[in-house]
Amino acid sequence: MVELLAPAGDIDAGFCALQYGADAVYLGMTQFSARAEATNFTPQNLSRFVNYAHSLKKRVLVTVNTVFFNNQIESLICVLDTLNSAKVDGVIVQDLGTVYLIQKYFPNLRIHASTQMAVHNAEGAKYLRDMGVKRVVLARELSLEEIKQITQIDGIETEVFIHGALCYSYSGICLFSAFHADRSANRGRCVYPCREKFDGSHIFSMKDLAQKENVLLLKDIGVDALKIEGRKKSALYVGAVVDYYRSLLDGEKNQSVLADKFKNIQCVFSRQTTSLYLKDPKNFDVTDPNIVGHRGLYIGNVEKLTTKGKTRFIKFKPTSSISKFDGIQIDLPNEERPIGFSAETLIVNARETFNVKAGQSVEIALPPHSQFIPEKSRVYLASTSKVKSSYPFTKPKETEFLTVQNVDVYVAIYSNKIIASSMGVCSQIDGEFSKAEHLETVQNNVEKAFSKSADSNVKALNIKLDNMGYFVPMSILNELRRDLFTKLSKVFDEEEKQRQNKICLDLQKTLNKNWGNKVDGKRIIVKTDQLELLEDLPEEIKSKVFEFIVELPNNFDGKINLPLEKIRFSIPTVIRKKDDFRKNVNYIKTTGINKFEINNIGGFEFVKSNFGLNSDIVSGWGLYAANKLAAVKLINMGIKRFTLSPETPDVDEMVQCFGDYITTINHSDYPMFISQNCPYISVNRKCLNCGGYRQKVLKSEKYGTFLSVMKNCMHYLLNEKPKIYRTESKNVQLDFMYRKWNKDDFLKILRQYL
């Protein structure tokens, strides 16, 4: 049975999701969540919610899907230990360092590969399966045929997004927010620069995903989980979306019922929607260049403007009912955002009313001093009390479903003191106690007092009383219980800390290892996708460059005029279509070269299946090595060199630890976006037949000037000029990628470094 997986940015959204039909919920903790600005979950809320979900036989997945830095390793261990203790049903991860920690220290945790890993082909899924990953969240850009191919792979589950916001870039390989706002998307703090204007329009602003009836196609091809995006959305939004897709999956045939439920979603939050590339890999209509943000449910156009005294009104016939104080939004010409206001005065047939039926002619009062609204302006219902009241949900009491530690308690009552003990922990209250008239009453009071656990995570499972015949007031028994349980809680907390400290100490043995040679001098590595730059290179350059990394153009059938021993082939970050880079495999085999750079997890499998297990592999920046544990994981996976992540602040520390294992990119064209969407199609709504390559300068009102490059129908947004970095690593890489390079400029830069 396919799983309907719903988001929960807070515990109320989780309760609502389960009530309206989610089979599972995914959520984030207050750290290491790709939605860092959602409310997220504390350990106490997580434990309570997991217990509640499990009581309903539903599942809980937790996102630990951000890149982390070296100073966060101890915090990450604490989070993973919390998830392990809470018995969550899966952990969604991006960073290979997180994979390393889970597999070594928390083997009971089930690993799911986040969409942040940008898994977009069968090779990526196969490699992750063999690495021990149980489920892969596929890139949103895939077609139904590609999803079907991956879903047929034995031994790994597939999870596919069906509804919610879309990133312009392939998830996990976007650097824009990190580079230009110092807020990393890979660390959960994206500022959504793709929603801003470039050349006067929102050419990168994606419509929202809404697969609607297509979910039945995904169900039929065997997808294991259908995922709704929205951990920053309200419980109301989550309930409405889950309810709609639950109805579809359960076989609701009444189209008017389904239509009404989708309208409810639009009232809560709505951009224009798209099915992206699921059924049409060349879908042109995936962005909304003209407007941004929530509109609501479209309910008609302004027919005329009227005036009553000093108040202006819009008059029209809404296609949906309206109630007093509902939220109204109206589009204005040449404005990217609508005006919004509360419908505080509704007039039908010259009389003020509280409710307007669909089809009735209504006049709605505009706020004082509102902008001029032309006739035919589009009107939206942006919030409505009817929808808000349509998704009530129940939630358990605060004291229910808490995780408690069960203990046995021994209580002894003497004439001058009362003692309670458990697990070697003792509490005592001194006093003068009188003889008990009824020992049964004392027994009952002790059991009643020590059976309480509302103020603690400790619960007395068995209570043994040794009473010398004295009576103790209930208030003293409660005080004794609180003191004992507080001490026991500290014991359990200390055990947890000791467990985590033991992992940290063991981990230091790995991190303190001398991983790489710390030698003087530098090795210059040159990477390019433009073979014409490498033609007839002067011998002085050929001899001094340590290695040339070459990304071959599609359908390459020529020669490379370089010494074979200095060539390494780069596997592109994205390999999807049957007619793209895969066709270069035969040529590469004829060269006898068995050295590769990979830039995506699928690259491992691509090289292994085509060129064998003994290939010499290095990793590019797209396989994030932002911390020591990710580096160790890559080395254990057979990497000979890894490229340091452009986001890590720990460059010197990483170089000191890993020596000549590390490559740093000192002359770079890091792409801010790598996207399947063509921005020229977004504007023109048709393909410009650029012949596979096009570049253009784009200006952003907020972020400056960029270079837009289309290469083989893949879009790369570059900084206006390449970035220059200075590091002291042994392996220094100079990238000449994507943009068209002049041969003279290329040689000049090389000579400067050499």
- How many H/I helical runs? 20
Tell me the number of strands: 38
Biggest pleated sheet? 8 strands, parallel, barrel
**Uncertain stretches of 5 or more adjacent residues:** none
Strand order of the largest sheet: 1-2-3-4-5-6-7-9
The shape, in one word, is flat
Distance between the termini: 60 Å
Report on the architecture of this protein.
The chain is of the alpha/beta class and 754 residues long. It has 20 helices and 38 strands. An eight-stranded parallel barrel has the order 1-2-3-4-5-6-7-9, surrounded by seven helices. Strands 26-27-28-29-30-31-32-38 form an eight-stranded parallel β-barrel, surrounded by four helices. A five-stranded antiparallel sheet has the order 12-13-20-17-18, with no helix packed on it. A hairpin with a 2-residue loop joins strand 35 and strand 36. The radius of gyration is 31 Å and the shape is flat.
